[in-house]
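so the lab meeting is tmrw and i was supposed to have these ready like two days ago... anyway. pasting both below. for each one the top line is the aa sequence and the line under it is the structure tokens. i havent really looked at them closely yet so no promises
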Amino acid sequence: KQKLARHHADPDSAFWGWNDIWLDPAFKAWNIETELATITCPILAIQGEDDEYGTLAQIERIAHALAQTRLLVLPRCGHSPHRDQPEAVIAAAQQQIV
């Protein structure tokens, strides 16, 4: 709870909101891939190589669906690249924007 409180003003609400959605049977089939076709701008997809909650297959599918996608996989990085490797994320974002 203390770890969650570092990032959320109301850790109980944050946890139960997340928990209730992920355990809802209707959520089991949820998939955002059908929405990818609506994206028309270039994408920078960043993921930590050691992400404990996601897989590289997720951002690889984005890149496969959208030609203007640049992938950045950060070694020695977990689920929060902006916290684990802020300099790399900022540099990549600057390159993407400019």
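ok protien two:
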Amino acid sequence: RAGARKDEMRQVLAALKRMEAKGYAFEAADGSFKILVQKALKQHRPFFDLEGFRVIVEKRGKRQRCVSEATVKVRVKGEREQTAADGDGPVNALDRALRKALTRFYPEINTVSLADFRVSILDPEEATAAKTRVIIESTDGEETWGTVGVSGNIIEASWEALVDSVEYKLFKEEERRKNGGGRKVPAAGDNNGADVRSEGS
């Protein structure tokens, strides 16, 4: 048994080093770290699969504010779901569209809101081609967790962090049910989506 534990530790450490070499940081991303451990040990089961997403940011004149709209296509439990949503910035729009797509299958995500959104530029010498790290902090009123995404595209990095946030919540609820715990699940529409206004993009 001790040998198996050591082998598991080696697998996790190897996966951690690979991700850190790509720019990921897990000090403030405990949710993403737990998902990383699951994947390293081949215990990860995705709750949904992404088929695609699109984000449009439109500016209609000098005096008009930017309008962001996101469309998300996912496959959940064998069903294909496509939804669109507006938001205060592209990340907020993506968050709303993802929730809209998943709420019918997983109403428990209605308790989750995004508490913080932080962006770091990893290689500023690359200017507009720089790689971006996004940290998202989420809460369900009982627990707060962080998730991380890294990409040369800030929207893709944000999407990674959003997906980890939702998956961590669903994993946590699954564990609660397995352990005999219970919690009242809110009805669809109780939460209109998180308010992410600090993204500046």
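from a quick look at the 2nd one: The longest strand covers residues 49-58. The chain is about 35% helix and 25% strand. will dig more after coffe
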